[in-house]
Amino acid sequence: xxxxxxxxxxxxxxxxxxxxxxxxxxxxxxxxxxxxxxxxxxxxxxxxxxxxxxxxxxxxxxxxxxxxxxxxxxxxxxxxxxxxxxxxxxxxxxxxxxxxxxxxxxxxxxxxxxxxxxxxxxxxxxxxxxxxxxxxxxxxxxxxxxxxxxxxxxxxxxxxxxxxxxxxxxxxxxxxxxxxxxxxxxxxxxxxxxxxxxxxxxxxxxxxxxxxxxxxxxxxxxxxxxxxxxxxxxxxxxxxxxxxxxxxxxxxxxxxxxxxxxxxxxxxxxxxxxxxxxxxxxxxxxxxxxxxxxxxxxxxxxxxxxxxxxxxxxxxxxxxxxxxxxxxxxxxxxxxxxxxxxxxx
Length: 345
Ligand code: FAD
Description:
Blueprint: E1 2-4, E2 26-30, H1 42-52, E3 57-62, H2 66-76, E4 82-88, H3 98-108, E5 114-120, H4 123-135, E6 141-144, E7 146-149, E8 152-157, E9 162-167, E10 173-177, E11 194-197, E12 228-232, H5 239-253, E13 256-259, H6 261-265, E14 286-290, H7 296-302, E15 307-312, E16 325-328, H8 331-344
Parallel strand pairs: 2-3, 2-5, 3-4, 4-11, 5-10, 6-10, 12-13, 12-14, 14-15, 15-16
Antiparallel strand pairs: 1-16, 7-8, 8-9
The structure holds flavin-adenine dinucleotide.
């Protein structure tokens, strides 16, 4: 059975309001880079959010490869309002250790010019923001999904089941930005941004040492920035069947593969694939949920996707209420047929 389901999305179609900025206000944006020093894709969305604050933007790069990031930004991103790039080249800032990066940020934010600080709501942002808030005695606003004005922001609460509008009267607004809720700024060449070095010496170092990182390498698009995601749930009984059906479907669409927590807990795939309240938050243009019931904790991570397709043999599965297109039936029959049709198209 093929059916079309309607869903409402309170964020969609809302117009972006512009507002007047203070003459001295400016936004400091911590730009994350990867191990090679290149920009993380989420920084394009972070810069869009920074633009919406309508202040001049100062981009900050930290760590021994900071200059590579600054160059990459100049070579690949067009961002109106980005007037300055700060580079804090010090190896103690590598890996964004919050114990080391937060004092630098606290120092920079002493400058009255900065009214806003933005960072992605990534593990880096989630590590740094509370510590920074404590250092400058300021309450951060986490996981912002909409900017209503220089002091008013929307963030999800209760696993995305409610949206809170926050009025932030503090002189410094510390914000973490949910990348999937903002579009990416244009790619291109950044014109006219001045680059300056920030001297940094670690004082009162805490006994923190970076040991190692175990990263899952994949040739597929990264979940956080993928345009298409196919997600498998507990309906797959083992790892072999998860891979047998999900990999060809993902290949046919050049998609990233995601999973529910039940799929991860049952050992069907790596936990880096988990989407949801305790996993990654995604909003691709197309999201195909295969054998996923649609628990609230899963919906919290994907309900802002553009078009949602659900494949499930239970007509009452909650995922259908959140899907634009529903395919009711056995996934072991539907998925190979769908993959074949996509490949033939
Ligand atoms: P199920 O709920 O078991 O659903 C399987 C679905 O597959 C069913 O709807 C069934 O009808 C369908 N199915 C079975 N066989 C077939 C078939 N042959 N063909 C077609 N369809 C079939 N979950 C997350 O996903 N992400 C999170 O981040 C997350 N965080 C959580 C945090 C907390 C604090 C808690 C308490 C829970 C969290 N969960 C999370 C778990 C969540 O509540 C659900 O248990 C989980 O999402 C269910 O995963 P599922 O849809 O794969 O499994």
